[in-house]
Amino acid sequence: MQFVTELIKGLWKENPIFRLVLGMCPTLAVTTSLENSLGMGIAATFVLICSNAVISAIRNLIPSKVRIPCFIVVIATFVTIVDLVMAGFAPALHASLGLFIPLIVVNCIILGRAEAFASKNKIILSIADGIGMGLGFTLGLCALGATRELLGAGTLTVWTGLPKLTIAAYKPIALMILAPGGFIALGCILALMNYLQAMVAKRKGTTIPAPTELDCRHCTICKFGS
Amino acid sequence: MKETLKLIMTLSIICLISGALLAGVEKITKTPIERANSAKKLSALQEVLPACDNQPDQNECTVEHNGQTWTFYVARNADTYAGTAVETTSSKGYGGDIAIMLGISAEGTTETIAILKQTETPGLGANIETDNFKSNFKQKALEATNWTVKKDGGDVDQITAATISSRAVSDAVNKAVEAYLANIDKIKATGK
Questions:
Q1: What is the pTM of this model?
Q2: Most trustworthy range by pLDDT among A29-33, A70-74, B114-118
Q3: Residue B2: phi, psi to the nearest 5?
Q4: What are the structural domain ranges in chain A?
Q5: Of A80, A174, A177, which is closest to B22 when you measure between CB atoms?
Q6: Residue B167 and residue B38: Cα distance in Å, rounded?
Q7: What pLDDT digit, counting tens, does each position of A94-128 carry?
Q8: How far is B151 from chain A (nearest CA, A)?
Q9: Do A63 and B7 touch (CB under 8 A)?
Q10: Number of neighbouring beta carbons within 10 Å of residue B132
Q11: Which residue of A has its CA nearest to B18?
């Protein structure tokens, strides 16, 4: 039961991008197209599941004073494995994502989950957390990537080689695929999510529960709830 | 003291395991990575070179020009010089280096270009990969063409709103053409 709870919390309640607002640097950098977002999401999810599992397994062996260097070594190892395997067996994907793979090491979601969850919980729950957070990250990236690609380029490419959607009559807003567009799209989607949550809560007559693991600095919900 | 030793030991052991694991993965993936890289190079060569019956990727001519080392892949057909291809890079791109493969025919014209690596803005600078832009470099006389964008008084039609990327590609082509013209005899004689 707890497995399912840990699994689904990353999708909405503790979505890494829109709720925890973690890993903003790679998020804003890769979401210029849906394809890049999807690739980055899958690679980060793989690293997240593996690093969560290993860190959870060795959590009792690591002295707390050196835990952060240990976590980083574990994460960097998996990132390098992903990098090498992708370069060898999926060169096309590696060519389009190559630049972002080393960025996964410094993605705060991965270190954040290692520190906040995997170092305190059992392996099986940590894996569930990794899958959930990874899926939430991928979904968040895809939502941003699709919005920006659609508005900024007038196309929607799921994967190179698959048929892609092109809106010929649409004149693209180039700003949306440039850096400022990332901030604008992120802000709009965040606002929309907060609005939806507030609407649902109002209809049900409940107050929005504050996310437990967050501090006030990261939380934008109270403004709508109270 | 004892605690410090424990910290050092733990971190060392983790690094040791990690190192061993990576060495293993590296060993497994080494051949596929090399194969993928050479396949990529070969397909780019085939894209930009005229028809030939030798193996251009194994028929190299290395020259020095403007303090840079250039590797020309020379194609031969029935033992006569058929053309050459060269990889050239410009650091003037909008999002980092742009690497292209330029094909040159035996008649002193460009064959075409293939973009090997670019990280330009999708939808803008990334349009240097479109055939429309690449046609600027298709079958053009090497010496008679001014390899700069029209905005700077040259012959290359720049992409609207992506002048910097267009400029970078022109710059890369220009450098390669200069290196070719300066060493034309040596290149033509390679693999004779």
A1: 0.74
A2: A70-74
A3: -65, -35
A4: 2-225
A5: A80
A6: 28
A7: 877 767 788 788 788 898 888 888 998 999 999 99
A8: 21
A9: yes
A10: 10
A11: A77
